[in-house]
């Protein structure tokens, strides 16, 4: 189950690899590559796999190259990055709250980010770009939730209840702004409320392209501490983990990732619930499957977008609607599955 | 070695001391101005009624609970001056109630005990493997090493947690009610393991509810009531009928264990005279 992958000849350094987690990540990567290829090939004009791959590298006729590189690749990138960011944020948040329900979507962070972003889009006078607004909104929602709950608490329930309330308030604010906005602006803002890759903001995608790899490194550095934080503060501190610092860093990463993901795709928050759950199922229990969660989240987003584009083509169903249709039963299953602890 | 003949710790300076320690939950002080010196290389048992502050005291000694006043020193250094990992290599605490992430196996749990000894560049060593194996053996869990903790009995799970604390290889071990869920055989195994660890030089503190076992297996007995130490010393010296009455509000007959010379309680019954004050604080 465990293997020492590398060890210095004097035994002074050694790196441990969890076989099951590695297998899970390889499986998810394979599925993700397949889904990505399908996403490049399928569309209003279907392109064969070989032609699509050639087009990806700039070969073939100009039309194919344009469709692949300018249209579908940007959309694919937006899906991969935002899906991974949502799920990684969810995994971090669930771990630090020790509760599977404590995802940024459920505790109001996504709604906070959305409300602020919409405020800038519908022209309420805030001049910042949507990604910056989303970040401000996510941070605001987090601060309010923490203020109301007085910290994460032992099993995070207080925190979740406070977050649901904060999220509802921001959601109502978004609706109010959209109802009062001129119609053409409301159309621009619409993908933000359901969640869709249709109108992904290029600036936000670029920011996420930089932010996600950095966040993955940061999360990787926290992985050992987070694995111990899953037990309890007392046990983690007993093992020499600086729990407060670890919590703060994980929370900052989760807020940042959620905000940038919302800025790209809108509130597709249920990915934060599903991605980590899938990764936990596939991976071993010893660690927190941060990387696996990111892969699973990217996979869900790419597949949801693909399904949304194809199932009623040429009408497009927003990816956020697809994840809700799948995610709502999933949420019920998490809550109602017998013999299953909600505490992560 | 007759461990019951406990000498005052003149030759054995205390590794862990509390100086005027006051610990509170919120506004309510639970431990008040408490002084304690744990004898090095010996087994200390803390006894006292429910809610008297035993677990709070252990948390304070392990730096999990910041004091309102006073301080705790480890080898004459304030524990607040220790680094997080440095302290985790010196002192291990097994809290009274612990839960593990779903699906974690016994062996995986015990491996966590090695975390303070590991780092980014040294994730697993031959020493780690040896210690984990020894801890599994010490807790009699070799056959169950790959079983998830949720699929174990309460006692088996408790043994896995004890093994994790042992795998931390600290010179100080604080165990909060380590044998509460254990059957007679496994409880005795834990007590004997604790004696072996003490004989190997470790300093051990156990919170116990069974006064008989505390007398039998501890060198030093600390009796607490309402956040204060009411008696401390070798069990044969401090355990009296009056103390038992003061702690638990019961009458008993005290005998001397013919095998070990430890005090033994029999004929325990509710005190006829009403207790002076409620033992529950
Ligand atoms: N988290 C908490 N918040 C508030 N009060 C607490 C908390 N934990 C414990 N207390 C109170 O502090 C006192 C001491 O509790 P503690 O857990 O230390 O008792 P104990 O001696 O370990 O009892 P037991 O034998 O039941 O384990 C009790 O009166 C308890 O009600
Ligand atoms: Mg207790």
TrEMBL record, chain A:
The keyword Transmembrane helix applies. It is found in: Cell membrane. InterPro entries: ABC_BtuC-like, ABC_transptr_permease_BtuC. It holds the Pfam family FecCD. GO terms for cellular component: plasma membrane. Its main location: membrane. GO terms for biological process: siderophore-iron import into cell. Keywords: Cell membrane, Membrane, Transmembrane, Transmembrane helix, Transport. The chain crosses the membrane at residues 76-93, 105-126, 132-152, 159-183, 203-227, 248-275, 287-307, 319-336. GO terms for molecular function: transmembrane transporter activity. The keyword Transmembrane helix applies. It is a multi-pass membrane protein. Belongs to the binding-protein-dependent transport system permease family. FecCD subfamily. This is ABC transporter permease.
From TrEMBL, chain B:
This is Iron-enterobactin transporter ATP-binding protein. InterPro entries: AAA+_ATPase (IPR003593), ABC_transporter-like_ATP-bd (IPR003439), ABC_transporter-like_CS (IPR017871), P-loop_NTPase (IPR027417), Siderophore_ABC-ATPase (IPR051535). Pfam families: ABC_tran. It is a peripheral membrane protein. GO terms for cellular component: plasma membrane. It comes from Salinisphaera orenii YIM 95161. Signal peptide: none annotated. Belongs to the ABC transporter superfamily. Its main location: membrane. GO terms for biological process: iron ion transport.
């Amino acid at each position: 189950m465990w293997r020492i992958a590398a060890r210095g000849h004097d035994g002074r350094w050694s790196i441990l690899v969890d076989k099951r987690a590695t297998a899970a990540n390889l499986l998810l990567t394979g599925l993700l590559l397949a889904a990505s290829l399908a996403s490049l090939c399928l569309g209003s004009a279907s392109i064969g796999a070989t032609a699509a791959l050639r087009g990806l590298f700039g070969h073939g006729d100009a039309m194919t190259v344009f469709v692949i590189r300018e249209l579908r690749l940007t959309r694919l990138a937006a899906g991969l990055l935002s899906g991974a960011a949502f799920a990684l944020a969810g995994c971090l948040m669930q771990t630090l709250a020790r509760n599977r329900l404590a995802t940024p979507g459920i505790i109001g962070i996504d709604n906070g980010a959305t409300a602020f972003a919409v405020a800038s889009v519908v022209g309420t006078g805030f001049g910042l770009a949507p990604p910056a607004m989303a970040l401000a909104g996510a941070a605001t929602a987090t601060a309010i939730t923490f203020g109301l709950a007085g910290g994460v608490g032992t099993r995070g329930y207080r925190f979740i209840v406070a977050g649901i309330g904060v999220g509802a308030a921001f959601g109502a604010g978004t609706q109010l702004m959209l109802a009062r906005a001129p119609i053409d602006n409301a159309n621009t803002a619409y993908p933000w409320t359901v969640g869709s890759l249709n109108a992904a903001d290029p600036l936000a995608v670029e920011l996420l392209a930089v932010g996600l790899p950095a966040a993955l490194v940061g999360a990787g550095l926290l992985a050992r501490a987070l694995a111990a934080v899953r037990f309890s503060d007392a046990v983690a501190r007993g093992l020499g983990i600086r729990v407060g610092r670890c919590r703060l860093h994980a929370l900052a990463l989760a807020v940042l990732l959620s905000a940038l993901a919302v800025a790209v795709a809108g509130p597709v928050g249920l990915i934060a619930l599903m991605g980590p759950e899938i990764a936990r199922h596939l991976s071993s229990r010893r660690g927190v499957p941060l990387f696996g969660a990111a892969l699973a989240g990217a996979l869900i987003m790419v597949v949801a977008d693909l399904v949304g584009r194809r199932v009623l083509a040429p009408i497009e169903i927003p990816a956020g609607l697809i994840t809700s249709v799948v995610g709502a039963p999933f949420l019920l299953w998490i809550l109602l599955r017998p013999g299953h602890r909600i505490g992560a | 070695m007759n461990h019951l003949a406990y000498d005052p710790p003149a030759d054995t300076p205390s590794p862990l001391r509390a100086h005027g320690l006051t610990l509170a939950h919120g506004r309510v002080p639970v431990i008040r101005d408490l002084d304690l010196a744990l004898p090095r290389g010996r087994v200390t048992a803390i006894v006292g009624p429910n809610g008297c502050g035993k677990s709070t005291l252990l948390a304070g000694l392990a730096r999990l609970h910041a004091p309102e006043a006073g301080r705790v020193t480890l080898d004459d250094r304030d524990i607040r001056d220790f680094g997080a990992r440095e302290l985790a290599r010196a002192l291990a605490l097994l809290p009274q109630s612990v839960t593990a992430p779903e699906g974690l196996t016994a062996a995986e749990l015990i491996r966590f005990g090695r975390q303070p000894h590991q780092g980014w560049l040294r994730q697993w060593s031959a020493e780690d493997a040896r210690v984990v194996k020894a801890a599994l053996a010490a807790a009699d869990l070799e056959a169950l090493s790959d079983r998830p903790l949720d699929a174990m009995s309460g006692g088996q799970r408790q043994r896995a947690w004890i093994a994790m604390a042992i795998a931390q290889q600290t010179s100080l071990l604080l165990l909060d009610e380590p044998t509460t869920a254990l059957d007679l055989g496994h409880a005795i195994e834990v007590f004997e393991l604790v004696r072996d660890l003490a004989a190997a030089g470790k300093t051990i503190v156990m919170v116990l509810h069974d006064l008989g076992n505390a007398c039998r297996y501890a060198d030093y007995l600390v009796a607490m009531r309402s956040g204060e130490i009411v008696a401390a010393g070798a069990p044969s010296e401090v355990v009296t009928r009056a103390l038992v009455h003061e702690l638990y509000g019961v009458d008993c007959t005290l005998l001397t264990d013919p095998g070990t010379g430890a005090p033994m309680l029999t004929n325990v019954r509710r005190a006829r005279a009403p207790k002076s004050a409620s033992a529950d604080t």
